[in-house]
Amino acid sequence: MKPYLDQRVGDDWSHRLRRFVQRIRILDRDNNRYVEKVVDPETGEVLRDVEEPLSDHRGHGSAKQPSSDAPQTSPIKSDPQEKLR
Question: How distant is the alpha carbon of residue 37 from its chain centre?
Answer without folding.
Answer: 12
